[in-house]
Amino acid sequence: MGQIKVLDRNMINMIAAGEVIERPASVVKELVENSIDAGATKITVTIEDGGRKLISITDNGCGMDADDLAQAFEPHTTSKIKASSDLLGISTLGFRGEALASIASIAQVRALSRTKDSTGANCVEIDCGTKTGLGPCSADYGTTVQIRDIFYKLPARRKFLKTANTEMGHITEQFTRIALANENLDLTLIRNGKELYRLSEKDDLRQRITELFPIPSGDISENLIETQSSEKGLHVHALMGKPLISRTNNRFQYVFLNGRFIRDKFISHAIKEAYRGLLEPGRFPVVFLFIRMSFEDYDVNVHPTKIEVRFYNSNLVHSQILGALREKLLGTNLEMPGKLPEMQHTGNTSRHSPPVRDSRIADAMAEFFRKHRPAQMQQQLRFRPSAPGEIHAVSREKSAQYDRKYLQIHDSFIVAQTEDGFVIIDQHALHERIMYEDLCRRIRKNKLQSQRLLIPESFEVTVSGAEALKANAELTDKLGIELVPFGPRTMAVQAFPTLLSGVQPLDFIQDLIDLLDRKDVGLDAERLLDEVLNMAACKAAIKAGQKLTDSEIEQLLSDRQNAESASRCPHGRPTTIKFSIGDLEKQFKRT
Ligand code: ADP
Ligand code: MG
């Protein structure tokens, strides 16, 4: 007898669900997309226990009548395409007719729906593919779909779910994409009974970005450059982050094609090229890119979750995006603005209303206290200019020892005589190495010594950023960083490592969050700590272009003697190039 059997319908759906429904966040994506396709202007997403317990989506869209509601959860049922020719120009987010059937095959589902012109609503209940109820009920117009106990009959899949916080992070990411693509939608996200986001349909894009991407160092939208271009049927609208707010990974590149979030290697390449020469290696720009083009010019039917599309003319897409972004970036003055102390603004206070003025004075005072730390803290600062008398006393004493056999050139390199020749030292790379070794040594023994900030600095974080900090509390504690939560999306730094006193706490925390929040690369604790120390060393080290006093140069040269591997910076680049007298004599044809 033959071995081949036709799979039963529920098996087919469960297999399809494996492709489309990876985790609770995929359910959120599919359901919200259905609400948008149904013309909703207001959508509420309610999550309990990271979506394991409950995912509920309520919209005010067109709704379904009793027949459609009964039909919608059957496999391969859709109202969005009718003939194969429709596949050539898909204008809706969905069209495959498999999301609801897939979801219903792996969870307990209850859906209520009412069309605008009907007096009553209908309800359907399905338990892992088996219809358990259908009938009239009472509900407002629109649709609510509730999903409970996802994967409860599939222990193997349920096991793959991560902690509630991690799953919530994925859900928030899907919510963010939808919120960016649909600025006119009223969108709410509720987690365990508490409102996490309430985005109004009145928001403009910049307001939305500010709400969705709180950054510790200030308002992200102030650092976005906007450009638009329209040519050959392709409309490009971009908000590009200035190099100043670049990140350590490319997760902050959002590309939307006709309202659909996509990933595309041609477009990623165009973005990277647009920023060529404007960013340091290893940094990635923040970019929000909205592309509009005819539905006939690409195919969305190439990926089950439609995150990839196929452009019929990808060269045109690449060159036009690159051209528009690059032209705008090169035409913009991207110099780093010097950070003026807040005190300077107080001269104009008459223009501000009293509450604003009060807060400005408070800011100015905070800034003043920050600058004038108690003397005992000042001593910890490395490579900060000391009082003039002090410099001379130290350098006179020490320069005898070195007999001034060194010279700083271009404020970046130090040329120093050695016993049998001379060395050229990259001041940043060497200091970075020294700081790195110092940090490693100290942290191996104990946690880093920290100093309390006179005025705690508060900052906003994304939900996943806050989770990442929470999950790595041990690490931040070891670093000597003390953080306290102020609300679901606000935190404050209370104490910061003494060794990093030259670094802006909020800048550092921003990059720390980026490092900790890289879900894609599962770094073990040791590698993660190493990366963090690397980053700390790089930020705390003196920079190229920084003029050094004699005593600072001497300190650097003497620390160099004590470093374990002074010849390479932590990234493996050389810190020092050696020349021997022998080489010189040969070059000058003396031998
Ligand atoms: P698709 O979106 O690919 O058509 P789905 O399985 O997601 O397939 O949905 C099946 C059908 O159910 C849709 O085509 C639509 O007609 C209907 N539907 C789903 N969700 C909603 C909703 N929120 N409001 C109104 N109709 C809906
Ligand atoms: Mg759908």
Q: Could you give a short description of this structure?
A:
By secondary structure, this protein is α+β, with helices and mostly antiparallel strands.
What fraction, in percent, of the residue positions are helical? Answer: 25-40%
Beta-sheet strand percentage? Answer: 15-25%
Lateral arrangement of strands in the main beta sheet? 5-4-3-6-2-1-7-8
What value does the average pLDDT take?
85
Distance separating the two termini:
93 Å
The largest β sheet comes out as:
8 strands, mixed
Beta-strand segment tally: 22
Q: Any idea what the shape is?
A: elongated
Outline the structure in words.
This protein has 591 residues and is an alpha+beta fold. Helix content is 37%, strand content 23%. The chain is built from 19 helices and 22 strands. The strands form five sheets. Strands 5-4-3-6-2-1-7-8 form an eight-stranded mixed sheet, with helices on one face. A five-stranded mixed sheet has the order 9-10-13-11-12. A four-stranded antiparallel sheet has the order 16-17-18-22. Strand 17 (413-418) and strand 18 form a beta hairpin. Helix 2 packs parallel to helix 6 and helix 13 (427-445) crosses helix 17. The longest helix is centred in the last third of the chain and has 19 residues, at 427-445. It is elongated, with a radius of gyration of 30 Å. The structure holds adenosine-5'-diphosphate and magnesium ion. Magnesium ion (MG) binds at residues 30, 33-34, 94, 99. Residues 30, 33-34, 94, 99 line the site of magnesium ion.
